[in-house]
Structures are given as C-alpha cells and as structure tokens.
Amino acid sequence: MKTKIKSLIGSLLLLSLVSCQVQDDSPISGSKSSHPVNINLSSYSTASLMNYLIPSAYANVSELKACFKRLRFKKDISDSTTEDHSSGDDDLTPHEEDNIDFNIGEVTLTDSGTLLGTVNVPEGTYYRIEFDLEPSCAGGKSLSLSNDFGIFTSTEKIKIKFEGVFVVNGPEALELGVQDILNAANAYNGSSSMRDVFESISGSL
C-alpha cells in the first residue's frame, strides 16, 4: 500500500512539473513587455497665410468631432490591411491581432491639443498608427465637421492614419501631428465623401 501511495505522489509531482513547463512556454508568457503610451493630438492652426491673401479660398474649422473605436500600432507600413473577400465586399479589413480597443467615444478636437488617453503597447519600433472612426457614438456619426462651407457629417467607417517613427521601450508620451488633417478639414466643401478625403491624407508621428 505504501508503495502505491508513493507511486501516486510521484506521478502527481511529475504532472505538476509538466504543467508548469507548458505554461512557461506559452505565447503569452513569452511575449515582449508592454508599456503605457499616453496619446495626445497636437495643437493646430485653422488659419494660414492664404486666409489673409484670398479669404474666399479657405474655410476655418469651427468644430471637428470624431468617434474613436479602436487603433493599431503598425511595425510595417506596407502591411496595414488585408483584403477580405469572404463577404464579397472590397473593403480592407485590419489584422485582428493588431487591434487595440480604444472605444473612448466622441472627442472634440481643440486647437490647443487634445488628450485621448493611455493604452498598453508592446515594445518595438512603429512606423504607422491607425485609428478607426465608427458611427457608434450617441450621435450616430463617425466624423462631424463645421467650417465656413457648412456643416458636414459621415456615418461611414473612416480610418485616420499617422506616419513616422515611434519607439516603445518604456512608458511613453505620443503626440500625433494633426495639422495636415486640419488643413483638409479647412478646405472640405462637401464635393466628395468625407471618407475619401480623410483617408487620403496622413498625420505625423
């Protein structure tokens, strides 16, 4: 009987050691460290020299609101999306493993800068950051714009991108340059879709 008990205890100990080894080798425990990244949108100007030379050619943004849903930090600028033909539509679908939930709701951009929040990001060097704007906020709009040309809104999913170089190797503060995006908002007059206009430009890291 004592021999059987010792054998049973030995088997349990061996099983425990094997289980620990499997856990240590898991992808989660072997992944790189993540660090908090505090994200801000930079200050901007809605006026340029041309405003004073040819006032009718430019408009001033009086309000710009965006409904933030998620974001992605991309290590390869050429690998930002993959085509999804499973549903028969030609939209580009992001890699699911790159998604970071960032459902902060509707944010009003201010010319003095806008604090978005903090997310945990794995260590690495990133060349592109993408935000998904979706019509999931209370107003049902992904993007809302008021300028001298009028009031414009979109209910389409819109991807806003920022390009440059950003290194994460500890707690970081990231300021995203939005001046080019605001320049496009200044000039927007409704002649084309907001999605086409805002997805065709990039902010800066």
Walk me through the structure:
By secondary structure, the protein is of the alpha+beta class. 23% of the residues lie in helices and 40% in strands. The chain is built from five helices and twelve strands. The protein has helices at residues 2-24, 27-30, 49-53, 179-187, 194-199, and strands at residues 34-41, 63-74, 82-83, 92-93, 99-108, 114-122, 124-133, 143-147, 150-154, 158-168, 172-176, 202-204. Strands 2, 5, 7, 8, 9, 10 and 12 form a seven-stranded mixed β-sheet that branches. β8 and β9 form a beta hairpin. The radius of gyration is 24 Å and the shape is globular. The termini are far apart. The model is unreliable at 11-31, 49-58 and 79-94 (pLDDT under 50).
